[in-house]
Design a protein that fits this description.
By secondary structure, this protein is of the alpha+beta class. The protein has one domain: Sandwich (Jelly Rolls), CATH 2.60.120. The chain is built from 4 helices and 15 strands. The strands form 3 sheets. The chain has a 5-stranded mixed β-sheet with strand order 1-4-12-9-14, with no helix packed on it. Strands 3-2-10-11-7 form a 5-stranded mixed β-sheet, with no helix packed on it. Strands 5-13-8-15-6 form a 5-stranded antiparallel β-sheet. Strand 2 and strand 3 form a beta hairpin.
Length: 278
């Protein structure tokens, strides 16, 4: 067990099931359908119960360049996160500042945001409940190039490129399906399994993510009962290969002590790329 976990006497540590990839089975793939039936996962799947430690008491120790994620406190001025125009007008500038402050970036580009709700009776996507990283060694740079075009991507490639997601609850507290994050410093390259993802909501766009194979020694964390004043920065890709965190897998999970009748989880994630001078 991680020394940090051993030293923190936090009764909110839990053991819960996560969905991993089975590297000995069929190659995994993911389909995001147009309908609201939820993400469809195919291929070899491996259900494992793992320790997911509460990061509450050590929240200020996490760093996007070491563990691959960090925890922030600070309210947004957005009044209605379901108003896309307000999110783009008010929240996007807030996110750009957050990411720039965290990375030292000279430029930050936002390419989309997603609201997720556990209630299947809404039109929103449900939480992604499989251990995954949003980008791979190949798909990270490709997504940037698709977003900003070849000329700007060539200019950006002369510097360090960092992909950051900012995850925030938009209803509180989070009692259903909290977010588990894998400490990137506890991963090995062999843990990451290339996975094809087809998004029917984006005209069948085909991309690539990493699924995660379970291995003893991986360290998972979550932050119990998050509020709208809190957010998590998650690094999905880093172009530098100097020992810092580059990929940070994560997954929603069913907390074994979820109260009966707990309100649906509602959250927003904003996806960004940052250009950091080297």
């Amino acid at each position: 067990m991680n020394e940090t976990i051993r030293k923190v006497d936090d009764q909110r540590h839990v053991r819960a099931e996560l969905l991993f990839a089975d590297p000995s089975g069929e190659a995994p793939s993911v389909l995001i359908p147009k309908s609201d039936e939820g993400t469809v996962r195919r291929g070899g799947l491996d259900h494992r119960e793992v320790l997911i430690a509460s990061g509450r008491d050590i929240a200020d120790t996490f760093d996007v360049d070491k563990e691959g994620f960090s925890f922030l406190t600070g309210a947004s001025t957005v009044e209605n996160f379901e108003d896309e125009a307000e999110v783009e007008r008010v929240y996007y500038p807030e996110i750009k500042k957050i990411v720039a402050d965290a990375t030292g970036a000279a430029e930050v580009e936002i390419f989309d945001h997603t609201i997720r709700v556990t209630d299947p009776n809404t039109g929103y996507r449900r939480p992604a409940s499989h251990a995954h990283n949003d980008y791979t060694e190949t798909s990270g740079p490709k997504r940037l190039r698709d977003m900003i075009g070849d000329e700007r991507a060539d200019a950006w490639s002369k510097d360090r490129i960092v992909q950051i997601n900012v995850w925030r609850p938009i209803a509180e507290p989070v009692l259903q399906m909290p977010l588990a994050i894998l400490d990137a410093s506890s991963t090995e390259p062999s843990d990451l399994i290339e996975t094809t993802i087809t998004n029917e909501r984006q005209n069948g766009r085909v991309g690539q993510i990493y699924s995660v194979a379970h291995r003893d020694g991986q360290r998972w964390f979550y932050f119990p009962e998050m509020t709208t004043r809190e957010a998590i920065l998650i690094k999905g890709y880093d172009s530098l290969k100097d020992g810092r965190a580059r990929f940070t897998p994560h997954s929603a999970f069913v907390h074994p002590e979820t109260p009966e009748g707990a309100p649906p989880r509602r959250s927003i994630e904003v996806r960004t790329f940052a250009r950091v001078s080297t």
